[in-house]
């Protein structure tokens, strides 16, 4: 049976992978992203999808996008609060306050606006799944990346709380914690962390691999497969869980 699936940050990376995976199984998909070019690519790749440019930190812009989806679908079955940003890299005494705020706003405030809308609809219909994107940085300390880690830890707390609030209404809430996911975003992160630490990009990449038990990076497809499982009948009793998709991170320390 086709489901109605909304994904924030759906224009690239994990979000685009989720959009492709849900569409491939026959679901209706709606995505938003702050990058108009990414939105255009998604619209071209997934005919019939609702694809809109919206910044998850803009309450008015998100209200317009979410209202359009609600008017079109009348409800929603799966919501992936996925939008996030890597934030700045460096020791905390070197960080700019505006950069800190921007990182927290995209990952946490954006999740709030998305989940507030989803909770209202799902509570009324008595069913639904919310999947929030945290990170392995939401499970451990992450030197030189304090705003990102703080935001992702907050997502874990939000997930646990919403699972308790919405569970009696038949709504499940879980978080995924991807490790280092291959792609342009991690390329930018590696470059940023290399500059902040004084290491080369090659050394920085090797540290990521050595810090994982499986000694490998994660693919977008790995993450999408896990989320599809959460959205399947096989996971109907899974809620309030924090699922690491990372090959088992042993350390994020430099």
Automatic annotation (TrEMBL):
SUPFAM superfamilies the UniProt entry points to: NAD(P)-binding Rossmann-fold domains
Protein family membership: Belongs to the short-chain dehydrogenases/reductases (SDR) family.
GO molecular function list: oxidoreductase activity
InterPro entries in alphabetical order: NAD(P)-bd_dom_sf, Sc_DH/Rdtase_CS, SDR_DHRS6-like, SDR_fam
Stored Pfam families: adh_short_C2
UniProt protein name: SDR family oxidoreductase
Keywords: Oxidoreductase
The species this protein was found in: Paroceanicella profunda
């Amino acid at each position: 049976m086709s489901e109605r699936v909304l994904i924030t940050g759906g224009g690239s990376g994990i979000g685009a992978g989720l959009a492709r995976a849900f569409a491939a199984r026959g679901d209706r998909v709606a995505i938003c992203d702050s990058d108009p070019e990414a939105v255009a690519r998604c619209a071209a790749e997934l005919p019939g999808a609702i694809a809109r440019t919206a910044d998850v930190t803009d309450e008015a812009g998100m209200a317009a996008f979410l209202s359009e989806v609600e008017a079109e679908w009348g409800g929603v079955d799966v919501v992936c609060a996925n939008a996030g940003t890597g934030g700045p890299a460096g020791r905390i005494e070197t960080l700019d306050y505006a950069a800190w705020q921007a990182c927290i706003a995209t990952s946490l405030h954006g999740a709030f606006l998305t989940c507030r809308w989803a909770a209202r609809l799902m509570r009324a219909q008595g069913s639904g799944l919310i999947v929030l994107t945290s990170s392995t940085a939401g499970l451990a300390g992450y030197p030189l990346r304090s705003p990102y880690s703080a935001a992702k830890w907050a997502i874990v707390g939000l997930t646990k709380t919403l699972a308790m609030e919405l569970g009696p209404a038949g709504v499940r809430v879980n978080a995924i914690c991807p490790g280092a996911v291959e792609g342009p975003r991690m390329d930018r992160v590696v470059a940023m962390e290399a500059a902040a630490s004084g290491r080369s990009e090659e050394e920085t990449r090797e540290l990521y691999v050595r810090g994982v038990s499986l000694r490998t990076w994660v693919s977008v497809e790995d993450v999408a497969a896990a989320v599809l499982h959460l959205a399947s009948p096989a996971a109907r009793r899974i809620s309030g869980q924090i699922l690491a998709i990372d090959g088992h991170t042993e350390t994020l320390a430099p």
